[in-house]
Amino acid sequence: MQTETVSLFTPPSTSLVQYTKRQMLLGQIFLIPFCYFIAFLMRYAGGYQIQNMEELRKQFKVIAKNNSPLIIASNHLTFIDSTLIIWALASNFWYLFNYKFFSWNLPAGDVFKKKWYFRIVAYLGKCIFIHRDGTKEHKDEILSLAHDLVKEGQILTIFPEGRRSRTGRFDVDHITFGIGKIIQNLGECHVLCLYIRGDKQVGHSNYPPRGSTFRPLIKLIKVKANPENRRAYLEIGVQIAEQIKELENQYFEK
């Protein structure tokens, strides 16, 4: 007899699901002008470069199309880490015709929802606000929605640290376990562990220093959950965090 996975979530409301569907539709319609504008800002206003972009994009196309469900788990140093990741992994034109692989992410609503321009960027950039100061029911509902999107074949980016690192290094001692809860309810999931850091970055900052060059490192793993253990999500979170920390060690060794 197969054991059913124990749900750890509050199911998303019908209104939230419908809101997300409208968000996907409008995001795809406005993808080309919106994303080319963001890429222009990063490339020319920020002076940012992705050193291994061609290699990364080839790898990601294969990974995305052959490893579902898929979650991206990364370190977190600046406000725009998720934007840099999306930019590094594929072209805007490819995302237009493969929109489900344009990653969702979960920015802090208590920070980014306060300013109207952040709300617009978040809406068109496939963001779902999660309030760190919100109720357990709110957080579980957002994680449940994220779980359903990943189960449908879409991609989600999560930062296991939950906030930008205050040490300038990936902090394995202060991780959150939302990713573990999602995977525990999925049963198994591919996780693209990713480490991204500008060559001029010292500690955490709102934005990478101007003129930064990035060389993201990736490692694909497959994580399986124990459906009989309600707290297996803790082990899953630690396992993923250790992989990101290993990528960080490789980055500094090079």
Which key terms come to mind for this protein?
254 residues; alpha/beta; Glycerol-3-phosphate (1)-acyltransferase; five-stranded mixed sheet; 12% strand
Structure description:
There is one protein chain. The chain has 254 residues and is α/β, with parallel strands linked by helices. The protein has a single domain (14-253), classed as Glycerol-3-phosphate (1)-acyltransferase, CATH 3.40.1130. It contains ten helices and seven strands. The protein has helices at residues 14-29, 31-45, 53-66, 81-89, 92-97, 109-112, 116-124, 136-151, 178-186, 232-253, and strands at 49-50, 70-74, 104-105, 155-158, 188-195, 213-214, 217-224. A five-stranded mixed β-sheet has the order 3-4-2-5-7, with helices on both faces. The chain has a two-stranded parallel sheet with strand order 1-6.
Mean pLDDT: 92
CA-CA gap between termini: 49 Å
Shape: globular
Number of helices: 10
Oligomer: single chain
Radius of gyration: 17 Å
Strand portion = 5-15%
Helix fraction bin: 40-55%
Question: What number of domains?
Answer: 1
List the secondary-structure elements in sequence, H or E. Answer: HHEHEHHEHHHEHEEEH
Unreliable runs = 1-6
Topology diagram in text:
Layout: H1 14-29, H2 31-45, E1 49-50, H3 53-66, E2 70-74, H4 81-89, H5 92-97, E3 104-105, H6 109-112, H7 116-124, H8 136-151, E4 155-158, H9 178-186, E5 188-195, E6 213-214, E7 217-224, H10 232-253
Parallel strand pairs: 1-6, 2-4, 2-5, 3-4
Antiparallel strand pairs: 5-7
Helix pairs in contact: 8-9, 9-10
